[in-house]
Structure to design on (776 residues):
């Protein structure tokens, strides 16, 4: 079944240079087609052997969870199993509550399905899929039993068994036969991003990076963080070794994020010094950076070996303090000393974070794990309004369909509702749900036509399971093949689903053209109505409205940094920042005004938020004199106000408050001064970030009339 | 172990808890083996895991449910 690549002779490749690549692509596509078909028929056979009611449900499950990467299949299967259990339990409860009241029953069902679609919006990865399935299974369990409430329990048991058979078969087949390993993808990506970060830290002299390069690097860091987290969430299902390393991978991601933020802060600090004519201090800091640069430049073949780098960084971390003390003697005035101390602190923090990052990466690559690590989950930035819209849309679709069904006494209304449930949930998270629904609709219609041909011309003459496969496989395999084409999103799934659903394999097989056509029409109407619902209540994912809200949410991250309890705050702050930024970036055209504005805000939020968190930690640790502590608290509160609703007066107040806190810290008599040093450094970063006219703050900066307002 | 267990008036096959316990056992073994990276010595880890599960479940089923 798979296309065999015969050693292409040089003559071949010269005449058709695209041919080898084409054949390699086809080979993996056909391997997937083979796996999908094998899993489908195996599931159908098992379901028939176990004398389950509708083997087609097992086949549908296989269609829905099949994916070329086995990690994806297993992750999807896991959440599908959970969703199915929750959904069937709810279906039972619903039937128990309203066995006689159709209106109440359908209302609650619509509400449940809507809420599940909303839940799907709030979770990423396949967890969202679990929510869709919870809604869908409640419908699939309860709807067919609506005319005979007493059978609902049997119906639930049957559905759950069929789905479980499908899940187990799909999981085993995709994991055992030519597994497309997601872990190798994760490994390769992690190595790439590690190499990129190390190269970037080595080759770019802090402060001297062009703004575009910094922006490009930032985009890449953010993508790295989100992508690695997404991959990790699926890989843990595929590979026990990866699962054992899951906590470490999360922590690694956090270290990467922390180190990249520190690096950016350092860059901005030195950059500002250069722009404002503080070259001597900047030069001293660049000299201080030299040990890190050296540590990152071993021989070429060891450049990206984390264990080598970690050892070298460890050595450089001990070299920095004496060098810093020596460089510090160059400066005498208080301002230069404050600037140097701030830079020194950032630099040491960066070196330490980079060392921890490399050491952790090295420990993940080792065969044997030692000890445990702290938990550092990746938090997501969610938009609750978007989820509410999804709830509303799905609820309206379901209510409209229910009303139509009740009013018309349509016998096949249940089928239409079922399909609407699946797809309004599945596509609620997609950015172009209408197009996706259209493609799926077309695929579904084609699948029904193909199934019609198979059912009424080919199948009646066949006998036995082998003949069944022979009769249906040629037309069925179009579906999985289309699933591998990324240019036709949804068509393959639609085709396979339409084909399998309407074929409704049973033992013994039922041939009923009238039922077939009625059922087909109801399916297409249900799917079509989902599309109509997406026209009336458009998807919010990626819309301008949502992007604006997300940008606002990104700004509020500083408020979070200023007010939330400090325990684990840094992890939350860094990961939500990345997640939000990535979500907005996906739908912003690069190079546009909007994109520039977004980047400007992202840099500003990153720098200020991190400084605020560090400031709060430093203030909590070193017991500050009363006056300084009050000034610091007020500065933090003013900065939070500024980011909550930025405007010029608030900017002025925030800037003044920070200034006052710095003054208060500087006036502390010298024995207590050392305790204030960390706090002063963070305040200095904060002041610099606020005054930076190259960030988003530029619009609010107003020249001060009086040099000293206090 | 009984062939069928009554739970709230619903009969549940006795194999089901055995199946779930075996899954749990596999999960524990996976966690240990993953920690020490022993699957690196196996040619086809997924196949090995499926086989291991079949062995566990088969043995437990045959021993507990005569």
């Amino acid at each position: 079944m798979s296309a065999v690549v015969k050693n292409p002779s040089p003559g071949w490749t010269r005449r058709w240079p695209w041919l080898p690549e084409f054949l390699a692509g086809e080979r993996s596509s056909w391997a997937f087609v083979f796996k999908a078909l094998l899993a489908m028929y195996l599931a159908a056979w098992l379901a028939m052997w176990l004398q389950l009611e509708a083997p087609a449900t097992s086949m549908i499950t296989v269609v829905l969870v099949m994916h070329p990467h086995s990690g994806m299949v297993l992750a999807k299967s896991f959440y599908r199993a959970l969703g199915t259990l929750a959904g069937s339990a709810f279906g039972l409860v619903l039937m128990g509550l309203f066995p006689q009241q159709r209106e109440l029953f359908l209302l609650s069902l619509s509400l449940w399905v809507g809420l599940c679609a909303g839940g799907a919006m709030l979770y990423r990865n396949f967890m969202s899929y679990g929510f869709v399935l919870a809604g869908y299974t409640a419908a699939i369990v309860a709807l067919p039993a609506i005319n005979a409430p007493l059978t609902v329990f049997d119906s639930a048991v049957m559905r759950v068994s069929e789905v479980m058979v499908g899940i187990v078969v799909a999981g085993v087949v995709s994991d055992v036969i030519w597994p497309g390993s997601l872990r190798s993808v994760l490994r390769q990506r992690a190595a790439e991003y590690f190499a990129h970060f190390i190269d970037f830290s080595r080759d770019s002299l802090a402060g001297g990076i062009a703004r575009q390069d910094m922006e490009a690097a930032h985009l890449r860091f953010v993508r790295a963080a989100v992508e690695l987290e997404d991959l990790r969430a699926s890989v843990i299902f595929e590979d026990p070794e990866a699962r054992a390393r899951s906590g470490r991978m999360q922590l690694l991601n956090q270290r990467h994020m922390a180190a990249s933020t520190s690096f950016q802060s350092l860059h901005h600090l030195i950059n500002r010094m250069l722009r404002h004519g503080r070259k001597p201090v900047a030069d001293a800091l660049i000299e201080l950076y030299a040990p890190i640069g050296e540590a990152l430049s071993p021989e070429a073949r060891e450049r990206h070996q984390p264990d080598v780098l970690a050892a070298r960084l460890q050595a450089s971390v001990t070299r920095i303090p004496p060098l810093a003390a020596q460089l510090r003697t160059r400066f005498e005035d208080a301002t230069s000393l404050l600037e140097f101390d701030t830079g020194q602190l950032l630099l040491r923090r960066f070196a330490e974070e980079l060392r921890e990052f490399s050491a952790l990466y090295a420990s993940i690559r080792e065969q044997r794990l030692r000890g445990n690590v702290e938990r550092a989950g990746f938090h997501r930035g969610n938009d609750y309004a978007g989820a509410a819209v999804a709830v509303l849309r799905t609820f309206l679709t379901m209510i409209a369909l229910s009303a139509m069904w009740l009013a018309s006494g349509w016998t096949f209304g249940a089928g239409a509702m079922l399909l609407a449930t699946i797809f309004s949930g599945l596509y609620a998270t997609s950015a172009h749900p209408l197009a996706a629904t259209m493609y799926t609709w077309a695929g579904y219609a084609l699948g029904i036509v193909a199934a019609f041909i198979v059912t009424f011309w080919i199948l009646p003459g066949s006998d036995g399971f082998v003949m069944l496969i022979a009769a249906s496989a040629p037309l069925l395999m179009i579906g999985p093949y289309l699933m591998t084409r990324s240019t036709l999103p949804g068509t393959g799934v639609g085709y396979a689903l339409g084909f399998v659903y309407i074929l409704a394999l049973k033992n013994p097989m039922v041939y009923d053209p009238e039922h077939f056509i009625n059922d087909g029409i109801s399916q297409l109407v249900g799917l079509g109505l989902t599309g109509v619902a997406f026209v009336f209540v458009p998807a919010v994912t990626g819309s301008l409205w949502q992007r604006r809200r997300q940008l606002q949410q990104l700004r509020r991250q500083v408020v979070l940094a200023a007010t939330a309890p400090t325990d684990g705050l840094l992890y939350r702050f860094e990961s939500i920042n990345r997640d939000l930024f990535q979500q907005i970036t996906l739908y912003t055209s690069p190079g546009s005004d909007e994109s520039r504005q977004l980047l400007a805000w992202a840099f500003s939020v990153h720098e200020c938020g991190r400084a605020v968190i560090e400031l709060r930690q430093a203030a909590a640790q070193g017991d500050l004199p009363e006056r300084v502590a009050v000034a610091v608290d007020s500065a933090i509160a003013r900065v939070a106000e500024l980011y909550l609703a930025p405007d010029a007066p608030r900017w002025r107040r925030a800037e003044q408050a920070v200034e006052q806190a710095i003054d208060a810290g500087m006036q502390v008599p010298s024995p207590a001064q050392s305790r204030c040093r960390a706090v002063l450094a963070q305040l200095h970063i904060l002041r610099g970030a606020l005054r930076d006219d190259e960030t988003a703050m530029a619009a609010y900066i107003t020249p001060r009339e009086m040099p000293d307002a206090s | 172990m009984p062939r069928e267990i009554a739970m709230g008036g619903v009969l549940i096959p006795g194999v089901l808890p055995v199946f779930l316990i075996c899954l749990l056992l596999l999960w524990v073994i996976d966690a240990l083996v993953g920690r020490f990276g022993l699957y690196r010595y196996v040619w086809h880890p997924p196949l090995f895991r499926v086989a291991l599960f079949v062995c566990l479940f088969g043995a437990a089923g045959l021993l507990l449910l005569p």
Summary: The mean pLDDT of chain B is 87.
